[in-house]
Amino acid sequence: MDKSNKRVVLVTGATGGLGTAMCKKLHSDGYRVVGNYHTKEKADVWMQNLNEEGLHIELFFGDVSNFESAGKMIAEIEEKIGNIDVLVNNAGITRDGRLINMKPEDWHAVVNTNLNSVFNCTRQVLQGMIDRKFGRIIQISSVNGQRGQFGQTNYSAAKAGMHGFTKSLAMEVAKYGITVNTISPGYIGTDMVMAVPEKVLAQIVAQVPMGRLGGTNEVAHLVSFLASEESSFITGANYSINGGQHVS
Ligand code: CAA
Known about the structure:
Rossmann fold, alpha/beta, binds acetoacetyl-coenzyme A
């Protein structure tokens, strides 16, 4: 908790489309929100935009794909703000392409940023949560980790791995009042999704029974639900939020 007794939430990859919506929603729901950023220029623009909206949310630098960098950031947050009660592992990138053409660096960048980051951050907040007997750990995975996607062997592997992590850790820490869950969004109207070639995206949206992209606020609402005290009996779960695109 921070000094005013608010639960502290760390959202990784806060400056992206989903991260921004989560930060705003969690802030309005009464959390002390801190965001993680990787690119200074993006962080400056983000901060300015939020300030113009009258919102003041601190951002901390950290390369979550790197254990030492993530640890330094977490230590800094815990010293300046307070203990982290809720961790949202949201940072993620794409390097789409068929496996036959995929360069090793595109494989490693995606696995390091999307999956190894989950270990790097969770490992370094977990002891505090165990000591305080409270914690919420939320992975932002993807429908493409549940069903696969042409051109995303790296991304789908990393996103599917996140849920294996969730299920195992949920068992390990349930007795300490810590819940661990995954959210698997479908195609949401973020810059990442809008970068998909128009024709390909139109074909994808045509497969969504709701016939539209999801809203970032819709995912943020689910994050806030899982972060809440009232969600204390939900753990090891994977929440699909995809407009019916993949039903399992
Ligand atoms: N299924 C089957 N075949 C397909 C296909 C598909 N979905 N898409 C393309 N192909 C075929 C093409 O018809 C073509 O076949 P021929 O050579 O016989 O004509 C062949 O594959 C090559 O197609 P491309 O020229 O498109 O291949 P490419 O290697 O240049 O590009 C790609 C591939 C970059 C992956 C491109 O298809 C693409 O961008 N796809 C979208 C991937 C996607 O959905 N990414 C999601 C990003 S957002 C995100 O990840 C957020 C989230 O969690 C949802």
